[in-house]
Amino acid sequence: MTIRARLTVQFAAILVVTLLLFAAVIYFFTYQSRHEAFTESLFSRARVVAHVYLDGTRRGDERSRASYRRYLRQFYRTLPAEEVYVFDARNRVVFREGRKGKNVPVTLLQQVRQTGREVRFKGRFHQTVGLLYKEPGRGNFVVVASSADADSKEKLGNLLTVLTFGLLVSLVVVGIGGLVFAGQALMPMKRIIREVDSITASDLHQRLSPGQGRDEVSLLAQRFNSLLDRLETAFVGQRTFVRDASHELRTPLAAIIGQLEVALLQQERTPEEYQRVLRTTLDAARLLKDLTNGLLQIARASDDPSQVPRSRLRLDELLLQAYEELHRRHPTRRIDLDFHETPGVAAAVPFAVLGNEALVLVAFLNILENACKFTATNPAAPIVATLTATRSHIQLLVVDQGPGMSEADRQQVFVPFFRAEAVRTVPGHGIGLPLTAKIMELHGGRVEVASTLGQGTRVQLSFPAAG
Question: For all residues of the chain together, what is the average pLDDT?
Fold first, then answer.
């Protein structure tokens, strides 16, 4: 079922239920009102009959009393199927008028003498009322009147017909109107569907027209445009990444192939020449291995954060591991470590964060490795790594005294395979900082780089502290 049809059905159902409840309330209160009015009308007739009858019995002669009874019958008998009885104290009928019906039950007479009045129903529109009429000096009389409420039956039947017809007409009008207005309300959705169908992977630059106002359709178009922005960025980044990765992989592969071809084409070579070729090939293979490992680490760091196992880590211990590894790789470099906790911050586990140990260690090694490589021309210049713990964050600040970089280059350092102009001669692939940024994003942290050309670089990693 389409949204248009579903909205129409739901709206029509709500209206039908509302109208049914409204019609039921109208019918119920109309029935109760007419029912009570008819009951009071019967009691009024009973009182009039009792009064007039007893007044007529006071006449002197029988002829006058008979004439009065004829007048009484013509006076009160206006209701359909009406019957009136007057009973004396011994429950004998002293007056009756109307069609001959069933005998009045003695229980009704007894109930009337006890309560003063009684109402009984036979069906929905037939009532029998009993009234105790007290006549000073002559005793108590029970007046019983019964009649069918034909007028209410007719009027309520007409009311039921009008309500039913009105409900059916309303349902038809609402159905047609609902289809029309729902179609008009969903026109922007149809436009969005057409525009989405026209967008392919080759033209992700297209965007949906947001429309007018701030309704849900406009917000949906804006959110979808934001999604297209992210997809376009991802596609462009993927194409750039594949192109750059292919270029970087081709360089060591070409070196390996070239060295092997040269060695095979010559007839005879000395052992020293073969060793040189093997060393060159081995260096190119190691370079290829490092590049492949870096690409795999970037792919791993781009995984869903919920799929990466995490545990409570101590960053001071990981920093010491990274320091030992860097000291093995660059024994001549000077790296100074400084551990600093903010006064007043007491933690059960110092420098604790929640994260993946292998990935965090890679991030530390990348930052320290860059600092060591870029200060190769000045081995005596110290590299300072400061680990600071605050109440909400753990921060690692690495400061070197290398060549630094320009502001334009600094803004590109997180692009995979980018190499700053001042360090093009330094061995590397340009994936260390992009990989670190991915790892920090995966851990809910951030990485900041500040650098001045000729004055060194400052890299700061900030992790959320473990609670």
Answer: 77
Query: For residues 417 and 431, is the Cβ–Cβ distance under 8 A?
Result: yes
Q: Which amino acid belongs to residue 2? A: T
- Looking only at the bridges linking them, the beta strands covering 311-314 and 126-135 are unpaired
Contact 139, 10 (CB under 8 A): no
The pair phi, psi for residue 127, each rounded to 5°, is -130, 150
Residue type, 128: T
The residues, any chain, with a CB within 8 Å of residue 255's CB and separated by 6 or more, are 280, 281, 284
Condensed to tens digits (0 to 9), the pLDDT of residues 286-299 reads: 767 766 765 665 56
Structure confidence at residue 178 as a pLDDT band (50, 70, 90): confident
- pLDDT tens for 202-258 read 666 777 777 666 677 777 777 888 887 877 776 766 666 666 566 556 666 777 777
Q: pLDDT digits over 87-126, tens only?
A: 887 888 877 776 665 677 888 888 888 888 777 777 777 8
pLDDT grade, residue 396 (50/70/90)? very high
Residues with Cβ within 8 Å of residue 343, at least 6 apart in sequence: none
pLDDT at 424: 59
Q: What's the chain's length in residues?
A: 467
Q: CA 419 to CA 400: how far, in whole Å?
A: 18
> Rounded to whole angstroms, what are the CA distances from 379 to 43, 55, 298, 334?
120, 137, 30, 7
